[in-house]
Amino acid sequence: MKIVVFGGSGFIGRKLLEILVKRGHDIISVSRHGRPDSLTEKWADKITWVSSDILNDHEWQKYVKDADWIIDSVGILFENPKKNITYDRFIVQPVREITDFLKNNKSENRFLFISANKGPFIFRKYMEAKYLAEKITKRQNKNNLIVYPGLVFDSVKTSSIVITLPLRILSHIPLLNKVIIGYLPIKRVTLAKEISKIIDGGQSIYTKRR
Questions:
Q1: In 3-state terms, what secondary structure has residue 203?
Q2: Would you call 123 helix, strand, or coil by DSSP?
Q3: pLDDT band at 119 (very low <50, low <70, confident <90, very high)
Q4: Per the CB 3.0–4.6 Å rule, which of 6, 19, 130, 133 could disulfide with 95?
Q5: DSSP string computed for 40-93
């Protein structure tokens, strides 16, 4: 299948690209800077890397038209308004741009948005942005899919290990693990494999909020 991944050069996107291309799919990654210089693995040579800013140009649109799936993995965990890095700009607006394009072109391809399951109070604004993006996703087409992972971690990103460590420790304590089930972190590779399974027609617990 032909799959377009927005935000493919990011933390979640990179692992998703790796898993999908190794499954034999034709993958196009759309991001502002294209292929990262640090990404030298051989599997990355099989990806079509497109440098396009979804909010400022239309280069990405021609790749979406005949794709079987479009996946939105664009996102940030923390805002930095001084640098114009906001939840609206990096979570809500990309979803609106993509789904508006699909609706206006009456596209029959599938769209998948990577949301979040739950977040503690400090992530209130982050979750509000995700909720809004979910509404936009469903409004465009009821058959669009949303996945709801917990916080994503991987050893390649030290900050993700630090942020998720307390929750991962609590998950091994009887009774407490049931209380925090909705907040449980997920390994980056596990999330990528779950999304790949969904693309291939399989079932996943992450397509419903827990």
A1: coil
A2: helix
A3: confident
A4: 133
A5: --GGGGGSEEEE--TTT--TTHHHHTT-SEEEE----SS-BGGGTB-HIIIIIH
